[in-house]
Amino acid sequence: MKAMISTVSLAMSLALAAPAFAQDAPAAASQPAAAPTAADADAFVAAVEKDLFDYSVEASQVNWVNATYITDDTDAMAARINAVGTEKSVQYALEAAKYMNVPGLSADTKRKLDILRTGLVLPAPTTPGAATELNTIATDLQSQYGKGKGTLGGKPISGSDIEAEMGNLDHTPAEYAEMWASWHDNVGAPMKDDYARMVGIANEGAKELGFSDVGAMWRSGYDMPPEEFAKTTERLWQEVKPLYMALHTYVRWKLNEKYGDAVQPKTGPIRADLLGNMWAQEWGNIYPLVAPAGSGDLGYDIGDLLKAKGKGPLDMVRAGENFYSSLGFAKLPDSFWKRSLFLKPADREVVCHASAWDVDNKDDIRIKMCIKVNSDDFVTIHHELGHNYYQRAYNKQPYLYLNGANDGFHEAIGDFIALSITPQYLVDIGLLDKSQVPGADKDIGLLLRQAMDKVAFLPFGLLVDRWRWGVFDGTIQPADYNKAWTDLRRQYQGITPPVERGADAFDPGAKYHIPGNTPYSRYFLARILQFQFYQAACKQAGWKGPLHRCSFYGNKKVGANLNAMLEMGASKPWPDALQAFTGTREMSGKAMMEYFAPLKKWLDEQNKGHPSGW
Question: pTM for the whole thing?
Answer without folding.
Answer: 0.91
